[in-house]
Design a protein that fits this description.
Protocatechuate 4,5-dioxygenase, Chain B; eight-stranded mixed β-sheet; 10 helices
Length: about 300
């Protein structure tokens, strides 16, 4: 059955620390075009590859990959909270196919998701529950990380599964591109931060507000060109977009983890969600990118991009 793709960056800073209004209007226009593409395709199932930012997945148990048979949005950064309309049967079919392909995939009957998964749904649909979804978490921040090529293998196996469904499936990849915001790292954490990274699920509203306030403040410093933050890298972002459009996965995912950090920052590992999404589309055969937007936006701590694609 038909499969389409939409990949997009996300940023919790949207609406909280925006760039010049002309830039915001440009981004809104690009997202409106992506939304029109999705509306024309009219999916009846959305498979979303997304990261997490120590909201649903912490160091008490940190899988490389996890599929949700049920999921709830934590509602961070003012986004909608509550249950997603997860297609449990489709999640189990995909999980069985992926495991059968030799890719280790955890399964959750109670997944918590944050802005990394919710924001693209809000970009593309009128509500969080407009279309049934299958959420697939890819660890992109918690070290140690496996090689990026494993995301391609995951995506290819998911693509095999959705190709056998009698559904119109939209595959979404959420994250990236180059960016290095102040996401804590366990190896450098103080004891209190290490405790939060391991057991800090379900913070109080006051704790969440303080955490989000620190992110907004850091973005203001970064946008002024101050602070010890790695700059965005439009050249690397262009390479990623170009090679994914050409289905030249090896040019990206066969590089070392250090290469991602050196070129795009620690959170550039979120490109794994794009690799998986494009690999799922590639499992249907050759594809063609229909639209591609990019702009480095320091106010959002992101090389911001959005693409759409269809099989040829």
């Amino acid at each position: 059955m038909p499969v389409a793709l939409c990949t997009t960056s996300h940023s919790p800073l949207m609406g909280l620390h925006d760039p010049d209004p002309a830039v915001r209007a440009e981004v809104d226009g690009a997202l409106a075009r992506a939304r029109a593409f999705v509306e024309e395709f009219a999916p009846d199932l959305v498979v979303v590859f997304a990261p997490d930012h120590y909201n649903g997945f912490l160091y008490d148990v940190m899988p490389s990959f996890c599929i949700g048979a049920a999921a709830t949005s934590v509602g961070d950064y003012g986004l909608p909270s509550g249950p997603l309309d997860v297609d449990r049967d489709a999640a189990y079919v995909i999980a069985k196919t992926v495991l059968g392909a030799g890719v280790d995939l955890a399964l959750s009957e109670d997944m918590q998701v944050d802005h990394g998964l919710v924001q693209p749904l809000m970009f593309l649909f009128p509500s969080l529950t407009a279309v049934p979804v299958v959420p697939i978490f890819i660890n992109c921040v918690a070290e140690p990380l496996g090689p990026a090529v494993r995301a391609r293998r995951l995506g290819a196996a998911v693509g095999e599964a959705i190709g056998g469904l009698d559904r119109r499936v939209l595959v979404v990849g959420s994250g990236g591109l180059s960016h290095d915001p102040p996401v804590p790292r366990l190896s450098e954490a103080t004891p209190d931060v290490a405790e939060r990274l391991t057991h800090g699920r379900n913070p109080t509203p006051e704790q969440r507000a303080a955490r989000e306030g620190r992110t907004v403040a850091a973005a203001a410093v970064f946008a002024r060109g101050e602070g010890n933050y790695r700059p965005l890298n439009p050249e690397w972002d262009a390479l990623v977009l170009d090679r994914l459009a050409a289905a030249d996965f090896g040019a990206i995912d066969e590089r070392s983890n250090d290469w991602f950090v050196e070129q795009g920052g620690h959170s550039a590992h979120e490109v794994r969600t794009w690799i998986a999404a494009y690999a799922a589309l590639h499992a249907q055969g050759p594809y063609e990118v229909r639209s591609s937007y990019y702009r480095p936006i320091p106010e959002w701590f992101a090389g911001f991009a959005a693409t759409t694609a269809l099989p040829r």
